[in-house]
Amino acid sequence: MGGQAASQADARAKGQAAGRTAKGVARGVGGFLRPFRRVGGILWLEMTGAFFFLFVLYFGRATWRVRASYAYGPEHIQFLGYAAMTAVFLYLGVSSFWRARRR
User: Fold this and answer.
1) How confident is the prediction for the chain on average, in pLDDT?
2) What angle do CA 8, 10, 14 make, to 5 degrees?
3) At 103, is the secondary structure helix, strand, or coil?
4) Quick one: 30 exposed, middle or buried, by C-beta within 10 A (0-12, 13-18, 19+)?
5) pLDDT at position 90, please?
6) Residue 28 Cα to chain centre, angstroms
7) Which of 29, 48, 60, 66 has the smallest set of CB atoms within 10 Å of its CB?
8) Spatial contact of 89 and 27, defined as CB atoms under 8 Å apart
């Protein structure tokens, strides 16, 4: 019985040592990657903002196309929809770049 208890204690000690090693490696890798995570987050926000601005261009062009119907014309509802979508995507694009700048 003494041999079995000793082997269990030895296995437990090896497991704890492996756990401490893994924790140390994870902390080291995390510390190394921290600046890249920050830059990656900023880059992600800027790419997202640029993507939203593509929609601003699309809906802005459509709004400009039906601008003559802004008040009572036959495409009044389309004008309002395009203008609303332009405003929403403009807000999303600007706020994405704003958040990237604050980081």
Assistant:
1) 88
2) 115
3) coil
4) exposed
5) 98
6) 24
7) 29
8) no
d(CA 87, CA 52): 11
Residue labelled with tokens 């800027």 = 46
pLDDT(24) > 90: no
pLDDT surpassing 80 at residue 18: no
Q: How many CB atoms lie within 10 A of CB 64?
A: 12
- Indicate whether 6 pLDDT > 80: no
Give the Cα separation of 79 and 88 in Å (integer).
Answer: 14
Residue carrying structure tokens 């040592």: 17
Q: Give the C-alpha separation, 4 to 74, whole Å.
A: 88
Residues 6+ apart with CB under 8 A from 85: 55, 59
The two tokens of residue 12 are 């437990």
In angstroms, rounded to a whole number, what is the distance separating the alpha carbons of residues 81 and 75? 10
